[in-house]
Structure formats: C-alpha cells, structure tokens
Amino acid sequence: MSKMKKDWKTEKERLLRLDWEERRKEYRCQDYIPLDKIPTWREENRSNDDGSELTGGGGISDKVSLHKGDITLLEVDAIVNAAKSSLLGGGGVDFCIHKAAGTCLYDECRSLNGCEIGKAKITCGYDLPARYVIHTVGPVAKNHVGQTERDDLASCYKNTLMLMAENNLRTVAFPCISTGIYGFPNLPAADIALNTVKNWIEHNSEKITRVIFCVFLETDFHIYKDKMSEMFKDNVPETAEEPPKGDETPPPAKSTAKEESGDGDRGKEEAGAKGKNDNGSAASEGNDVPMESQNPDDDGGNEEEGQDQDMTESRDLSGKDEDKDEDKGTDNDINKEAVKEEEQAPAQKADDNLAEPTVSMEVAANNTDTSNDEEMKDSVKSAEEPDSIPTVSIQPKETTEDAEKKE
Ligand SMILES: NC(=O)c1ccc[n+]([C@H]2O[C@H](COP(=O)([O-])OP(=O)(O)OC[C@H]3O[C@@H](n4cnc5c(N)ncnc54)[C@H](O)[C@@H]3O)[C@@H](O)[C@H]2O)c1
C-alpha cells in the first residue's frame, strides 16, 4: 500500500528530535560509517608504531581525517553537497546525496530558492546518516581558474564551516567541491580546501570536533594524502592535554532568526543541541539544533532541461520512499545497480587488496564570516556525467608514484 508522501517540515521536526540511536533506525542505508570508525590524522600517523597509547595530542591533528569513499555513508553532524545554484539536485555527489536522503530533501531545497556561488545553505539530512546537509555551490572552473574561481571555492569551505559553527554542529565531511563536472583542477582545489580549512580551524578550534575530507577518486586520495603529509605535521608538544573526547556538552545553540521560505515565514527553529553522542557529534535531545536563517532568493530559473531531468530521474528512483521500509534492501540494490563507473578509480581494481587504513591528517583553517545571500543565476551548462556510488569506502594500496604516473 503506498504511503502518504511525507511533509518535509513535519519529517524534519520529527527527525531532529531523535537521538542518534533512534535515528539509526531511520537510515535508508544501514552500511553507515560512525565517526569513531574514521581515525584522525594523528591516530592514523601515530609515531609510536608499537601500538602503545598515544600521548600528547590536543592539536589540530585530532581534528581532521581523510577518508576515501561514499560521503552519504558518513554518520556525522553534516555532510556537504557540491550543489548547483538551483539546489534542485543534479548529478555527481549531488545526485548521490539526494538519492540517499529521499524526496524530503528535494522538497526542503525547493523552499530555499537556490544558493549563490560560494555561499552555503543548510537542510535536514532526512534518510541520511548525517543529521544535516550543507549545500554549497562551487565555481565553474572549466579550462579557467582565475582569482575569482579560487576565492569562490575558498568561500564554499569558509561559509560551510561558519554555518556549522552558527548551528553548533561539530563534525562535517566535505567532498572535493567543483573538481567533478565543474572542472576545477584537482591539485589547486585541494590546496584551497586544505589551506582554507587549516586557517579556519586554527582560529576556531573550540568550535569543531572533526573535519573529514571525503575523497572519492584515487587521484584525489593521493593528492590529499601527499599535501597533508607536507602541510600538517603533528607538532603539538607532548604535554598538551588531550582534546575533549566528544563528551563535552556544546553550549545550547542560540535560537536563530526566523527562517524564510518561498511560501512566507516558517516558524523560528528552537535552539539547543544538548548532549553529544559518544562519537563526538552534536546530538539533540528534545531540542533542535537551530537552522541558521536562510534568505532565499528567486530561483535562478536557468536550469538546463537536463539537470532537472536528472533530479526527476533520481526522484523517480527515490520515489520508492513510500515503500522505503519494505524496500530498504532494494534501495541498496538500486544503489549498487545504479553505480556507473564515473572513473574506474584504480582503487576499485585495488579493491581486493583492501588493507590500507584511511589516512587522516592535521588541518587548521583561518577565521572568516559568512552569510547566506541571494542566489545567483545558475549559468552552468549541465553536463551528462555518469554517477558512480561506491558501496564501500576503499583504501588503495597503490603508491603515489603509480598514481602520479597515471595522471
Ligand atoms: N546534469 C547535471 O545537472 C549534473 C551532472 C553531473 C553533476 N552535477 C553536479 O555537478 C555540479 C557540481 O559540480 P562539482 O564538480 O562541484 O561536483 P561533482 O561533479 O559531484 O564532483 C565533486 C566530487 O565529488 C565526487 N563524488 C561523486 N560522488 C560522490 C560520493 N558519493 N561521495 C563522495 N564524493 C563523491 C566526485 O568524484 C568529485 O570528486 C552540480 O550541478 C551537481 O548537480 C550535475
């Protein structure tokens, strides 16, 4: 029997009141990866290989990880979507996130009326293991990376982190924004991502528990791993006290200004993330973590036919929401079937010799302020791109030299 389509506002209020244990029953995909299964850079690069207890710490190397795999599996406060300015879903990681979150995500995004390049907007995560999705629109850098594109990409990371802090969220995962269909070269994009996050955390260390760079392609894994090894050494003196293990209660979130939506004002979200779950994320018990007020703007209206086509397709696929409970397994099967090799990442071949732990690293980032401004017209030509959704995170065995030879 088909179920009534869920109202996104009701669903959002219901979900944000659940604690992590109750939420876990709602995840569309049960292959989720809890935060404590993703080692920090420091844990991953422990100097004492004899496995003895790590001492010292408290530096940024406890704050960041590098993870290769599907961002939709990560159980964190927020995952970041590399969206298009209409926020109406499309392909790539955008498609994966919408597919995994369900149609309520699309409905809430539609109420936001788009997002400007470089800015960020936040929605509920719905069926995802992540409580929230922060949508940011990267620059289109096809064949040209000028200062504008570099600044816009840096703004995506800064504004996302600021939105995290404003909503008292403490664990976040980023994909490699703009390096897919938007054509930003992987190397400079990684530089911008790492330096921006590094500087922000250095000035806001108490506001963040973990930043995960969730790479998808072998190329990016090696780029990030090499850059982080150069950029971030764990030079925290041994005497530094251990960072809180996620057991400190974040201050009650301040209530935010009324949320506006295309259909008039929505009620103001109540503040107050109470305790944390045991893996360091903000958890709300009876209180919603406030949503930063978002000033929607007229929809760009310039979406390419194809783009909406993609979303329609994914909505049709995820139209299985009504039978989600019965079909949860089917959904996973669909995911697997739907996986087209976007790039036969070498790691896929290396899949059968999985052994490498994820690499994580120490990162710090500079201070900044952010705001959610009016949306800019989406001047991006949509492009067909097969989307690949790996079903497990993959750590390659391949050496950097091999990967560099390939590039
Ligand atoms: N026809 C379309 O509208 C269309 C087609 C393809 C992509 N897109 C998307 O592309 C635009 C954004 O471009 P972009 O380069 O910023 O994003 P992107 O094209 O999604 O690529 C960003 C990065 O995310 C990686 N990625 C893909 N799937 C996952 C996953 N499940 N988990 C983690 N990482 C993943 C991908 O390999 C790349 O490194 C948006 O319009 C968005 O909708 C749209």
Biggest sheet record: 6 strands, mixed
Number of strands: 10
The CATH class name of the domain at 8-49 and 58-229 reads: Alpha Beta
**Class inferred from helices and paired strands:** alpha/beta
What's the helix-strand series? Answer: HHEHEEEHHEEHEHEHEEHHHH
Per the CATH scheme, the topology name of the domain at 8-49 and 58-229 is Leucine Aminopeptidase, subunit E, domain 1
Spatial order of strands in the largest sheet: 2-8-7-4-6-5
Bound molecules: alpha-Diphosphopyridine nucleotide
CATH superfamily of the domain at 8-49 and 58-229: Leucine Aminopeptidase, subunit E, domain 1
Q: Give the proportion of residues in helices.
A: 25-40%
Oligomeric state: single chain
Q: Just name the CATH architecture of the domain at 8-49 and 58-229.
A: 3-Layer(aba) Sandwich
Please tally the helical runs, counting DSSP H or I stretches of 4 or more residues.
12
How much of the polypeptide forms β-strand, as a percent range? 5-15%
- The separation of the N and C termini measures 51 Å
Assign an overall shape: globular
Low-confidence stretches: 236-278, 283-407
What's the overall average pLDDT, rounded? 70
Family: Belongs to the MacroD-type family. MacroD1/2-like subfamily.
Protein name: ADP-ribose glycohydrolase MACROD2 isoform X2
Keywords: Hydrolase
Biased composition (Basic and acidic residues): 237-248, 256-277, 312-343, 398-407
